[in-house]
């Protein structure tokens, strides 16, 4: 049985994890909860459990019959239908429950295919060369360069924009609007001001995507928006589903990757031996990217709601209970990973849970991996010296782990 002090520490950790801003280093907090219980019922949120164990998170992610907890939390607002951002958020693929989710997932999978992603390889390499080249040009001035606006954000936005068919000159504007929107994606962890801004940004995002839909109906192209419009005209999507799926695919194309790139570079600077190992041995690139995904999980968790009694970690959890699946904590579970806080780019101890699992496994997982496998080696090999040069700014949104600003001094 855990001591009173350990329980108090766990409660303080949960309070910090669910209160904005997101902690820059949340991992000791996950460990404080796990020391008390891997499936911990917290009195801070009645009827809720914090799940921090790797095998428990993996199990829940694959359990049938779970409902989306973030969706349930958002719908607890009596006025949710009055907010443009919440209405569209609740139609996003990531938030749907059966029977809507399988139907929408089938449509998404029919256009966002492994073949379509594989076909993007040449474009990804071209865009990575361009952005790393621009980074090098900026570095030649001798002034610090902020990795996030210079590369970590615009590179994946350019990739998904090209894949969808969003014009180059609109991609970063759509990105800014989408960032306003995703601030309310944590369920209830946002301010009234953030909700109002999200509503305004979603209205503009709708208008921009609506114009793209009309253009592709008139003149289809070889892009995902044209494919989605074809699915709409075939009766597989209604108007709102078309908007929700297109905007969700846009966001899923950059959110994880932006966080991954910035966090990966920062982590490699904290483990210079691993940085040098990768420079010397490019053959470890596949395992290196997956280890960086494990060590610095870009999206730290998700929420599920039990719809029936389930057993998790030896506990019988009744229906109607909220499960906070702390994937970042699970990725540092010492029962699964040896010395989990250490970065080991050659690690081979089973897969991480950064992309979730089961029916909600991330559609963009292969795209994010491919982008990171291309651009990260380019960065570490293009610059002989990389060091933090100024104050970093971590993202503040609950559940997102990455940087808003990462100034670097780069030696070409």
UniProtKB/TrEMBL annotation:
Gene3D superfamilies named among the record's database cross-references: Cytochrome P450 (1.10.630.10)
Origin superkingdom: Bacteria
MF terms (GO), sorted A to Z: heme binding; iron ion binding; monooxygenase activity; oxidoreductase activity, acting on paired donors, with incorporation or reduction of molecular oxygen
Listed InterPro entries: Cyt_P450, Cyt_P450_B, Cyt_P450_CS, Cyt_P450_sf
SUPFAM superfamilies, alphabetized: Cytochrome P450
UniProt keyword Metal-binding, yes or no: yes
Keywords: Heme, Iron, Metal-binding, Monooxygenase, Oxidoreductase
Pfam families the UniProt entry points to: p450 (PF00067)
Membership in a protein family: Belongs to the cytochrome P450 family.
Protein name: p450 monooxygenase
Species the sequence originates in: Streptomyces sp. MJ635-86F5
Lineage of the species this protein comes from: Bacteria, Bacillati, Actinomycetota, Actinomycetes, Kitasatosporales
The encoding gene: cmiM4
